Amino acid sequence: MTPEEILQALYDETLVGNAPRVLELTNEGLTLDMEPQTLLFDALIPSLEEVGARFERGDFFVPEMLIAGRAMAGAMERLRPLLAETGVQTIGKFLMGTVKGDVHDIGKNLVNIMLEGAGFEVIDLGVQVAPEKFVAAIEEHQPDIVGFSAFLTTTMPMFKANMNALEKAGIRDSVIVMVGGAPVTQEYADAVGADGYAADASQTVKRAKKLLDERRAKVPA
Amino acid sequence: MAAEPLRTVLRSATKEVVVGHDQPFCIIGERINPTGRRIFQEQLRAGDFSAIERDVKAQVEGGADVLDINMGVPLTDEPELLAKAIQMVQELTDLPICIDSSVVEALEAGLSVYQGRALVNSITAEDDRMAAILPLVKKYDAAIIALPNDHDEIPMEADKRVELTGKIIRVATQEFGIAQADIVIDPLAMPIGADTTTSLVTFEVMRRIRDDFGVNMTCGASNVSFGMPGRHALNSAWLPMAMASGLTSAITDARTPQIVEAVKAADLFLGHDDWGMAWISAHRAKQAAAEA
């Protein structure tokens, strides 16, 4: 296969979530001395973006999104150490978790897939994440953004509890806070003092990039 | 030996509904719930309850046996809203009500105005949830839905769910004096789109809970088709399979004929509709409505 054929096949196979083939193609590309970032930015990421777009239009369904994400994750496991070696920076670090009392994770996992697809490094704390666990993880990982997910109106108040815990630990201003989930609104995000809200996975990516740019423009790195 | 099958009795001021393994399936209408309904949320915030009136009518006509009421609207006084909605629904229909909130104060406000014997939705196997809510269930003589999950994630293994069910039943009966017949277990129906093995686990959990404890079970049945196309068809196939595994009730879409008919047909095949008389009269009613 030529490098062009590899990129096209990588794009196509990621789109249909063929994980074994995506890993094979990734390895084949590397054997041909293709750059890891070429495989990532010219095939995997555009493919995941297309998956997200189709999902948003209602042409793709949850399992299709999940298997595409899994295919990409398999390739990333192979590429991540190589990317680190070549000094390729992720665009930002995103710490994610579903709030305490809430066990819903499908929406959160879809957002994670889209964020990774866009080049973020995502650290997922899972579900039922208590405020003190968010605080400890922020201190440990120093993320650019932390995301709180809630699927129930009854667990949304945990956003405020998390914010209070961040304030108390003195780390509120060191991180951008985004909130989301089915019942969450912009109004509610404002009420709890979050920096950002998005209604769905691809909006989250756009909003996260924008918030990151704004923050970096304000604070010289 | 299998445990004795239990019956859960729910009441409004004037009507009694019996949930049981030898009874026709109990359809709990899911619609009076603002989650994911932005317009409904705005209306409730503005004190406009007109959508509830429509939702009650559609679900009663559709074939609901009980109505679930959830008033979880962010940034509002949920106890006040829930109490008001319950009073309003009780004026509109004689169906018993499932009071749905995880805010203890809201459950108490709802129970205090409710006329009859309510179903409370819900507790988990977490000690603090049980300690906060079970005294209310006892005080107001209600029945309670309980989910067999604890502080960790939803257990994916059947063993763990059955074990937590045992814990809930033990604590509720021995420490809080709740009758075992008034405990309705939610065996946790997960979206099939996220993992194709989840329904098999849930069916196994249902069979074991029925055989080990004899209690009634309910679940949010529409959840199984989340994120998939053709949701009505999936829900209509899933419910009869769950019924055959021991599910005796579900919080589901009572407005969709395809779903309600699947349930009524399964009642007939499971021997819960003598001589098919309910099935036949539903057919006649439909004929009459078509001719009118």
TrEMBL record, chain A:
One of its GO terms (biological process) is tetrahydrofolate metabolic process. Gene3D superfamilies: Cobalamin-binding domain, Methionine synthase domain. One of its GO terms (molecular function) is metal ion binding. Residues 1-91 form the B12-binding N-terminal domain. Keywords: Cobalt, Metal-binding. It holds the Pfam family B12-binding_2. SMART domains: B12-binding_2. Residues 91-221 form the B12-binding domain. One of its GO terms (cellular component) is cytosol. PROSITE patterns: B12_BINDING (PS51332), B12_BINDING_NTER (PS51337). InterPro entries: Cbl-bd_cap (IPR003759), Cobalamin-bd (IPR006158), Cobalamin-bd_sf (IPR036724), Met_Synthase/Corrinoid (IPR050554), Meth_synthase_dom (IPR036594). Belongs to the methylamine corrinoid protein family. This is Cobalamin-binding protein. The lineage of its organism: Bacteria, Bacillati, Actinomycetota, Actinomycetes, Propionibacteriales.
TrEMBL record, chain B:
SUPFAM superfamilies: Dihydropteroate synthetase-like. One of its GO terms (molecular function) is metal ion binding. Keywords: Cobalamin, Cobalt, Metal-binding, Methyltransferase, Transferase. Pfam families: Pterin_bind. It comes from the Bacteria. GO terms for biological process: homocysteine metabolic process; methylation; tetrahydrofolate metabolic process. Transmembrane segments: none annotated. Residues 25-270 form the Pterin-binding domain. GO terms for cellular component: cytosol. Belongs to the vitamin-B12 dependent methionine synthase family. This is Methyltetrahydrofolate--corrinoid methyltransferase. It comes from Nocardioides currus.
